Amino acid sequence: MKELKYEFYIGGTPEQVWAALVTPESTKQIYYGSVIRSSYKEGDPLEYIGPGAEGAETVHVYGTVLEHTPNKALRFTHKVGPSYLKGGRAFESRISWLLEPVGGCTKLTLIHDEWDSADPSYAASDSAWWQILSNTKTLVETGRTLDFGSWE
């Protein structure tokens, strides 16, 4: 499968964009109530946990931290949580968040790659990333997120 790659320019510093990507206050807004649980040490687990099919502590995504360089890069493996599998296999892919200062703004690049050709979450990821990235940009620039309605 083709890698999913998106580049956004955000009116904020790399520190502001980084905070939007990793702090609980921001991830709750961007990821519809989910927070990241991780030590951010390479090799340690990373989970996006929040309200969902299994209650308030639903694991939506989980993986392993591959790289953590504050304000520059976060890479981790990606698997969908158990409630999304419907008895199927948990395929692994990779997510890379890359930040780079450009003038008075930040270039945010998201690369979601290393897909298994049988992974059924590819299409949903391609659709969801646009909303997540738009929410990230809007949150950094305005202090609020967009109203996409319900995900249910």
Automatic annotation (TrEMBL):
Gene3D superfamilies cross-referenced by the UniProt entry: 3.30.530.20
Question: Out of the domains of life, which is the source?
Answer: Bacteria
Outline the extent of the Activator of Hsp90 ATPase homologue 1/2-like C-terminal domain. Answer: 13-139
Query: Tell me, what's a Pfam family for it?
Result: AHSA1
Q: Which family does it belong to?
A: Belongs to the AHA1 family.
- This one is known as Polyketide cyclase
Organism, as annotated: Paenibacillus monticola
In the record, what lineage is assigned to the organism producing the protein? Bacteria, Bacillati, Bacillota, Bacilli, Bacillales
